[in-house]
Specification:
α1 runs parallel beside α10. The chain folds into two domains: 86 residues, Rossmann fold, CATH 3.40.50.10860; 124 residues, NAD(P)-binding Rossmann-like Domain (Rossmann fold). The strands form three sheets. Strands 1-11-8-7-5-6 form a six-stranded parallel sheet. Strands 3-2-4 form a three-stranded parallel sheet, with helices on one face. Strands 9-10 form a two-stranded antiparallel sheet. The protein is globular. By secondary structure, it is an alpha/beta fold. It has ten helices and eleven strands. The structure holds 5,10-Methenyltetrahydrofolate. The site of 5,10-Methenyltetrahydrofolate has 18 residues, from α2, β4 and α10.
């Protein structure tokens, strides 16, 4: 029997979706509106710098006005909050985000709370999170939304599926659970205190992995013919970029699997720029 594994190629999906998004930007520009995105980057975390550069490249390629605002690691919370206040009131900016992680001396919750929910492209403010769980999202966290855009592209129907998510972060695990619940999946969130993890994950029709440990998930965690979504951005023993899933070990057991790189990462950015364009379209629709 020939077993065929389907790669969920986020990079290619992203390229395909770029065409439609570029047209939306074009039609906004005909109406005199240029979508504006600002990213606030603190310090010089090299991974963050790469992600932000990728965001900038994609935004500019689509004709979005992109502003990068950089602060030294030593920036005070007050300075950062003042910039957020400025961006909240800047009519050229439809949406902005503060790249995480932030230095320890800055209270992430305080920063999130300062962002206007109307410009919260990341969907991280308490108001945005509340709306997400009520089922009336204003803006959706990019990674979760990107995963759904990718599954939609490959016509994966989540209705009634057993979804297991490993990781309960506010930026990935929780919002992914909310969006998949909205699609009528049966969602289980597991985390570092979960007992019998393998027992739970091996019942998953769809396994979403966001733990931040290189190649942690081997085939014994995976149900036969499962769909595996790898959100990890790790380095292997040779310093090469890899995911939380041991791809070579797991792939033949799955029906669909995301590569790293080229999987969830590019879709995260797709979801972000889609969100910015949608906010800009809101200038017309009120
Ligand atoms: N406020 C905030 N919003 C975020 O959306 C946010 C954040 N903080 N902090 C960190 C995570 C991570 N994230 C990624 C973005 C792009 C790639 C990406 O482009 N990945 C490429 C490879 C990148 C490389 O070459 O290193 C790929 O998977 O093919 C990955 C991860 C956004 N995040």
């Amino acid at each position: 029997m020939v077993i065929s594994v389907k790669l969920l190629e986020g990079k290619k999906v992203a390229q395909a979706l770029d065409e439609t998004m570029a047209k939306r930007v074009e039609s906004l520009k005909e109406k005199g509106i240029t979508p504006g995105l600002a990213v606030v980057l603190v310090g010089d975390n090299s991974a963050s710098a790469v992600y932000v550069r990728n965001k900038q490249r994609r935004a500019e390629k689509l004709g979005i006005n992109f502003q990068l605002i950089r602060f030294e690691e030593s920036v005070t919370e007050q300075e950062l909050l003042a910039k957020i206040d400025e961006l909240n009131n800047d009519s050229a900016i439809d949406g902005f985000l503060v790249q995480l992680p932030l230095p320890d001396h800055i209270d992430e919750d305080k920063v999130n709370e300062a962002i206007s929910p109307n410009k919260d492209v990341d969907g991280f403010t308490p108001i945005s999170v509340g709306n997400l769980w009520i089922g009336t999202p204003m803006t959706k966290p990019a990674t979760a939304s990107g995963i759904l855009m990718m599954l939609d592209h490959y016509n994966v129907d989540l209705d009634g599926k057993n979804v297991v998510i490993i990781g309960r972060s506010n930026i990935v695990g929780k919002p992914t659970a909310a969006l998949m619940l909205e699609r009528n999946a049966t969602v289980t969130i597991t985390h570092s205190h979960t007992k019998n993890l393998k027992e739970i994950t091996s019942k998953a029709d769809v396994l979403v992995v966001a733990i931040g440990r290189a190649k942690f998930i081997t085939q014994d965690y995976v149900k036969d013919q499962a769909i595996v979504i790898d959100v990890g951005m790790d380095r292997d023993e040779n310093g090469k970029l890899c995911g939380d899933v041991d791809f070579d070990d797991v792939k033949d057991k799955t029906s669909m699997i995301t590569p790293v790189p080229g999987g969830v990462g590019p879709m995260t950015i797709t979801a972000l720029v889609d969100q910015v364009i949608e906010l800009a379209e809101g200038r017309i629709n009120g």
